[in-house]
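tmp note - FAD-dependent oxidoreductase
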Amino acid sequence: MQRIETDVVIVGAGASGLTAATELVKAGRDVVVLEARDRVGGRLWTGDVDGAMLEIGGQWVSPDQDALIETLDELGLETYERYREGRNVYIAEDGERRLFEGEIFPVPAQTEGEIVGLIEKLDQLVAEIDPEAPWAHPRAKELDEISFAEWLGTQTDDEEAKLNIGMFIAGAMLTKPTHAFSALQALLMAASAGSFSNLVDADFILDKRVVGGLQQVPIRLAERLGDAVKLGQPVRTIRWNPEAPEAGVTVISDELEVHAQQVVLALAPILYDRISYEPPLPRLQHQMHQHVSMGFVIKVHAVYETPFWREQGLSGTAFSPYELSHEAYDNTNHGDTRGTLVGFVSDEAADEVFRLSAEERRERILESLSHYYGEQAKHPVVYYESDWGSEEWTRGAYAASFDMGGLARYGADLRTPVGPIRFACSDMAGKGYQHVDGAIRMGRLVASQALEALEARGALA
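out:
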């Protein structure tokens, strides 16, 4: 087994881990990045599927994501706007296809009033929430002990309004049923984007894409780090001595033994238990990590010879809380003559279709897309389903969130270091929570904390 000496070892070569490594190197420190996969990027992954470039993981950039935008500029990456010209599509409960423009769905006037009212109430609550510390809100415990579904029920009796508001948080973001997460967790999700209105506005939250794919961010960061990034190295053991912290920490994979002063776990909390710790993590971490779980969504890519929906005057943007694919967008790549649609099947609906054969699942999903775009949607030349739930080193999508009551109970402790072990990922970000922007912010934060610890130790030595 090869032994390596370094200042900081980082477990995970996603946006957070590679950002942390980059910041540490800028400060003159040595780093080693250990990545279990055979690629960098984590939940960012741009793949070639049957000759089509598909962003299998995260892909969008919104105007408020300052940290991500700064990184894109620093790396020399270009962006382009998501196609949005034309009318949007909404499918009603009775299957009626309705075309509309703007942010509010074409629903009955009373339902529209309820939706607008709910958005206003949520915006007012979100304005009171600090995304860095939602547990500090005076009503945090109360809001964390009521499900988002139950909270919506206390505000309105309009089922269509509840379904549509719930869709923006449950289906589009946390990818869990509204009864499975708290009102406080929903408020954090909205606060991380600045307001609930921002989540409702697809033109804001899904504003731009990166030419060549968003995985270009971790790829270029890794290129700058060179041989410091070690692929195919799942970490098995982290060992340190609490009574002799000056001895540092040893991180062991199947092939490498890396000795450092600090270690950063830059991976989703649900993967922490894949590592053995000597000594074991404290009781608090053992309990806390059991109250965090991943959501689940299928990201469906359908590529066609042409973007035929544009000829119909459609933007490609489509929503319905009654459809298997609850939302879909024009996802055509920059400069591509072909057209690509991306649709999403979330939480319990995703569970259901994964009980079907692959052929039946494809048929069901394309049938749903055809309700938005017509018969042509059933006949893509390339079809692919991003199934992050089956990825060994991810196990869900898009990200992790607390169960009922967990955010108020444990949220303040999620980033707390354990000896030389520090934690960073988008799942524990405030602003940019669950997004690449949050991953970058957490990478910067944990790098600064590790530097402080190294400098303090140097001053004591």
